[in-house]
């Protein structure tokens, strides 16, 4: 039988459990994961995941790499990725379509290069008659190449051929095998290709700095992509104060990465699948920053306007409003 004393005790325990439930749910959540691309900005997240202050608001925090844009988009849409480096236009597209995604910062000012074995290739115009491998069709490397080809008067399919690959390393393998004339890849893959060729007794060149070609072609002076996107679920998890702590950890991390690239590379080498010396070499070619989104708004909108000239749907049909800029 249930006595009055047992009933009261049980009821009290139930009330206490209800009051404690939110805390228990938070405690049972899987540790926060910072997601990055197969590119050098991920070193910043790998370093930030070691930050003692950040660990106080996100115990057990870790870092992982998404392998392609489809995986990244699926992770954001499902809620599995709440703090993830993305091309800034992708964050704007999500936001303009009503998803709870905002941009916290930008993490590089340009890290895309054209690599080839031909010393004569030094500008976009020099790619006439060539086949160039490019990862991620209809994503940032592709958009940039398309704009540069247009400015150089090259018609894709007639004057130049693009061989699309699922990942940057696949493009590197095509170039090393002599199946394409050049590749357009971000760091550290550009440095990885050059190192792999050297080990095989061949020479590859960082032929075109796409950042410089982009500035000349568009009249802009910044290339603020990618950056860290944060979702509403992250705000619910660590609060706005926690997102500020995350940003501060990222600001400290980028200083460490730029000052001590070898040390930073060791943290991300396994995830990026490249040797530490290659990743460390790539840092010097990656223009890594930790610029708050609100501070970089003018540069970000300049990039959006250029992309929208080709197709407004790239950014979701319009410039995002001020709510897009989280910090």
Task: Describe the protein in words.
The structure is a single chain. The chain has 327 residues and is α/β, with parallel strands linked by helices. Helices cover 49% and strands 17% of the residues. It is built from 13 helices and 12 strands. The strands form 4 sheets. It has a 5-stranded mixed beta sheet, with helices on both faces. α2 (41-48) packs across α11 and α8 packs across α12 (276-283). The chain is globular, with a radius of gyration of 23 Å. The N and C termini lie far apart (59 Å). 45% of the residues are buried.
Distance between the termini: 59 Å
Q: What composes the largest sheet?
A: 5 strands, mixed
The quaternary state of the protein chains shown equals single chain
Which regions contain 5 or more consecutive residues with pLDDT less than 50? 1-27
Order of helix and strand elements from N to C terminus: HEHHEHEHEEEEHEHEHEHEHHHEH
Topology, number of strands: 12
Shape: globular
- Taking strands numbered 1, 2, ... along the chain, how are they ordered across the largest sheet? 8-7-9-6-10
Strand fraction: 15-25%
- Alpha-beta content class: alpha/beta
Helicity range: 40-55%
List the helices and strands and how they pair.
Blueprint: H1 4-28, E1 33-36, H2 41-48, H3 52-57, E2 62-65, H4 69-78, E3 83-86, H5 88-96, E4 101-103, E5 105-108, E6 112-116, E7 131-135, H6 140-151, E8 161-165, H7 168-176, E9 182-186, H8 189-199, E10 205-209, H9 210-218, E11 227-231, H10 232-259, H11 261-272, H12 276-283, E12 288-292, H13 297-310
Parallel strand pairs: 1-2, 7-8, 7-9
Antiparallel strand pairs: 3-11, 4-11, 5-12, 6-9, 6-10
